[in-house]
Amino acid sequence: MAGHVASIAQNETHDQANQACDKPVYLTIDTGHMGVATQMIDVLNRQNVKATFFLANERTKTGGSSMDDVWAPWWKQLADQGHVFGSHTFDHVYWQADLPDGTFRVKPSAGPDANKVKIISGDEYCQELDRSRDRFEQMTGKKMVPIFRSAGGKTSPALLAAAKTCGYTHVPWTPAGFMGDELPSEKYPNSALLDRALHTVKPGEIILVHLGIWSRKDPWAPAVFEPLIAGLKDKGFCFATLDQHPEYRGLMRLKGTSSE
Predict the structure, then answer these.
(1) Mean per-residue pLDDT of the chain
(2) 208: part of which helix (H) or strand (E)?
(3) Whole-prediction pTM value?
C-alpha cells in the first residue's frame, strides 16, 4: 500500500512538473555505439532533464551491443529515474521498400544479419519491435510505452499500418528537432549545429540525438549536448517526455502503460 501511495505521489509530481511547462520540447535519444552514453546521462542528471529513449541492440565501441548484459544495469538505472522508453527494432532494421505481396525489403545494421538485405512480413517486423520491448522489460522490470521509431526514420504507410496491428505508433522527429549529430563534421561543425538549433527550435519540437554516431569524426555529443540543453532553458524552454506529448499521451493511457 505504501509503495502504491508513493507511486501515485511520484506520478502527480511528474504531471505537475510537465503542466507547468508552457514551452515544451521533447528530447528523444536513439541508441548508437554508446561511447558517449555515460557522459550524456551525466548531463541529463546535472540539468535535471528526462528524455525518451528508443532502444535497438546496436554494436558498441567495446565490442558488445547496446542491450547486452553489460548495459542492462545502466538501462535499469535510467528506467528507475523516470525516463521513457520505446522500441527502435532490436536489430536496427532499416525499411527499404514495400513489395507487391505485402512484405517488406529491409536491411538490419545490427545482429547476425547485419548489412544483409532481407524480405520480411509485417508480423516479422512486429517481432522485431517486440524483441526490443521484451529485452527492455527483462533488463529493467518496467514496461515500454507502445511507441517506436524506425531505423533512420524510414517508413511507408504499409509499414506503419503493420506496426499498428501489433500496437505500436511511430514517433518521428520534427524538422527543426533534427540536431545533425549524424552529419559529417567537416561540413557541419558542432558550433554551427548548436547555433542553428538555438535559433530554430520552437515549442513542441521532438528533438533527435544519438548515443554515439560511428561516422562523425568530431563527435556531437557530449560536446554540444549540455550547451544545447542549457541554451534552450535560457530561452524559456522546458523538457518533457513523450508520455506527456498531446499526440501520444492519450494512447499511452489507453494502453495502460506508464513510465513510472
Answers:
(1) 90
(2) strand 206-210
(3) 0.90
